[in-house]
Amino acid sequence: MSTVHRPGARLCRRATWTGVRPWLALLCLLLGFGSSPSVWAHKPSDSYLVIDAQQGSHLEVRWDIALRDLNYAVGLDANNDGRITWGEVRAQFTAVDQYATARLTLAVDGHACHLVPWQHRADSHSDGVYLVTDFHTDCPAHGTQLSTRYRLFADLDPMHRGLLRLVGAAGTRTAVLGGEHPERSFVLDQPGMFTQIREYAVHGVWHIWQGIDHILFLLSLLLPSVLLRRPTPTGDRLSGWVGATRLRSTLLDILRVVTAFTIAHSITLSLAALGLVMLPSRLVESTIAASVLLAALNNLYPMVGEGRWAVAFLFGLIHGFGFASVLADLDLPRDALAGALVGFNLGVEAGQMVIVLAFIPLAWPLRNTRFYRLGVLGIGSVLVAVLAAIWLVERAFDLKILPFTV
Fold it and tell me: Are 108 and 145 in contact (CB under 8 A)?
């Protein structure tokens, strides 16, 4: 714990940015939540599929599927007591295997693979316990092309995705399976660096677009960018905002915020992916929720004006650890780290820039309207603050309040 507390304490003592100290104080307070091994993750529903074309003459498959998802689809909790025991899971092995294999099709060079489950066990990922099933197949490991069709939970959760890791004698690659395009094909030879970067970039784009807490944090910091703060005799905080007059200044303000956030999360993403710095998941997720809450409250009760870039950098360091949890769950080998880091970062930035480029043409024409100041900035920030406060309580104290997971 000393490696967590001491840097945070120095940061709090040395901070001199105007108005930033209250933000740092809460960040330091949240460090205390990291002492518990309890894990709470904000990521959406995923499964982890490993196809190994290296270990033998035939493809070997490992498939990790979350117990919470299987319970919803198959019904693992036999006595409905809210707890899933290993005995209850074991009793449903056949049902689970039939449900899963009916929704995954593999073929090598046009010949369908027959999946034969031979071992089940439990394993933990950053968001809970998963059932791990190992399969033998009758497909040759040294074919030319692998074709996949992935439809797991497609009828229950359209946002679910399968994260594929394809291991071959010449290298490792990853891909996202499912969604609107369930069928994908892969050449079973050495993937070039460009192919690796492209595949991990898809992961990055997908994660930032699904990570609503990351998006709300960034948008909360961007909302005041098209406004200027003016004091009012009545002290009405919302009526103190007026539309900005210079687009160039607005764009520079947005650039500072986005650049600070990008640099910060790129630093910690790289450090975490390389295994140099690790933080407890509960601490990371709680602090991400707190960052969204504080960014929204700052729009209602301004503490930080032009220093929002500093807040973006400060909490961007924590968001980077959140991004890193995705790469950690992929269990990447060392030979894929370079392509993974470059591609994932590029994907996150691409997804982030789409959000920013959509925000500017929508917000700029509306900046002088009461709809934007009261509706978007005011009511919108209140709603974001309430949602983020619930997330913070859920993640910090390991509770379940909302009927959905973010």
Answer: yes
Does residue 403 sit within a domain? Answer: no
242 has which bridge partners?
Answer: 228
Q: Is residue 196 part of a domain?
A: no
Task: Give the range of the structural domain holding residue 116, as residue numbers without chain letter.
Answer: 46-191
Residue with tokens 């409250």: 297
Residue 124 lies in a domain: yes
SS3 annotation, 207-243: HHHHCHHHHHHHHHHHHHHHEEECCCCCCCCHHHEEE
Statement to judge: residues 208 and 110 lie in one domain: no
* Gap between the Cα atoms of 360 and 354, Å rounded: 10
Per residue in 146-205, pLDDT (tens digit) is 999 999 999 988 889 999 988 876 577 788 899 888 999 887 765 566 777 887 888 788
- What is the widest separation between alpha-carbon atoms in the chain? 79
Residues 161 and 248 in one domain: no
**Segment 25-76, tens digit of pLDDT:** 444 444 444 333 333 334 568 899 999 988 778 899 999 999 999 999 999 9
